[in-house]
Write a structure and sequence with these properties.
Elements (H helix, E strand, L loop, with lengths): L30 H12 L8 H9 L4 E4 L8 H10 L2 E5 L3 H13 L4 E4 L5 H12 L5 E4 L7 H12 L3 E6 L21 H5 L5 E5 L4 H10 L6 E4 L7 E7 L5 H10 L3 E5 L3 H13 L4 E4 L5 H13 L4 E4 L12 E6 L6 H8 L9 E7 L1 H14 L7 H22 L4 H7 L21 E2 L1 H13 L3 E2 H11 L5 H13 L3 E3 L6 E4 L1 H8 L5 E2 L2
Parallel strand pairs: 1-6, 1-7, 2-4, 2-5, 3-4, 5-6, 8-13, 9-11, 9-12, 10-11, 12-13
Antiparallel strand pairs: 14-18, 15-17, 16-17
Helix pairs in contact: 2-3, 13-14, 16-19, 17-18
Length: about 525
Amino acid sequence: MTLAASGPGISPSDPSTDPPTPVPPLAQASPDALEAALQVHFGWERFRPGQRPVVEALLAGQDCLAVLPTGGGKSLCFQLPALVRAGLVLVVSPLVALMQDQVSQLQRRGIPAACLHRGLQLHERRALLQALRQNRLRLLYLAPERLQAEATRQLIDEVLDAGRLVALAVDEAHCISAWGHDFRPDYRRLGQLRALCPGVPLVALSATAAPQVRADIIRLLQLRRPLVQVRSARRTNLTYAMRRRLQDPLPEVLEAVGQARGAVLIYARTRRSVEQWAARLAAGGLEAIAYHAGLDPESRQLALEHFQQHPRPVLVATVAFGMGVDRPDVGLVLHLDLPASAEGYLQESGRAGRDGQPACCLVLFDPADRTSLGWAIRAAGGSTNPLGAERQRLELAQRQLRRMEAVAEGEGCREQALLLAVGELVPPCGRCDRCQQLDPARDWSAQAALLLEALEERSGRDLRSLAADLAAGAAGSEEDRWAWLARRLVQEELVSESDDGAQRLYLRSRGRHYLRQPWPLRWAA
């Protein structure tokens, strides 16, 4: 393991190594003193909703769980206490790109920050250690796996023994939960932070966390009587739209980008797709830049700088890009595939409109996306016959994917359905394409009866073969329409679907009841 400064690094010539403007430690965090520190270090006159209680709790030595929406200023909750106490906050973060971006932003504000990761030179490593030992570092970012290294533990012990460790922060804390949308095994071991740093307050932060995920975070991080601060994930300046992807979606993508204000963020599922779409958009006259983990570090840094500094950048990336990247004027977040979960999509789409101005969140999907994503989820499990917790996690991922498909193909308000996935009940937004839709509904009762009868005759059929057989038996009907109807009947709980990704269908008791006593099934399609 090596210790490395992020971004420009910490060196004798770097202005970020100068001691920060001292803010006296507060015995009690008075409103005037906190607001003064906020103004001095960040230039803001007031806190955003949800921030102040978390800052005050950490300064009082209390553990916290903060679920604040994307763009809600989660990072300030642990950055300001470090400055107020003139000590160090240790931040665990899942991505090097995320750490580097936050460190660069802090250094531009004159706040000394660095991150532990592989790869920089010896003199940079020494500069970081010297800054840490001289109490000239306020925030130190590291990936969760770095905590397993003995050198890191010794470093933490040294800061702890000197009484300079203000707080611990676990960013993107939903990663610790198998119920979350971005589970990472390395996060599971973060419970050891409590043993490594007894008496130090710990704050866990996430943009979205359903109640079950919040309970997991509290249990696994061993938070003690935490302040739980949960703000609504509803973003009234965002407009959601989801529609079927055309065979060649390029004209639609170009039109959406042309109508967008500010920056544009386009998500594709694979690295290969990212490269292909960046090339296609460039050929179509857009200065589109690709970003994914397979690029060399210099190319990734150049892409990040382009996205942050260009007046109207168009970035094509995998979904890992964007965590913590502070570009307020993103006017369009466009997904070229069905997102893997509603919770993940709320975070990804939430990167739009951080400046509070109207922004669009568009998904172009195809029913085949769920099949390919489902197989990818199974392959990621690493075993054809997973057992125990791994099997449960894979089945949960399939259910999350099915729920996202229900949002994309369902009748109701997009925002309402997305927020329901994280346990939040809200009225229809009135802005999304479904709320604005004027298409008349059609009665699908007769077709539903045929499909349910086929499943009653032979249960456990896979969706694709069932749709093909029904299309062959009904003159002029389309296979994809039968597949769509089968998915709607799953969403209406007349049919159940296997959670292994094979899309095997079974008639439920509610479906049998429908065959005995049918009722109207009216949907627009």
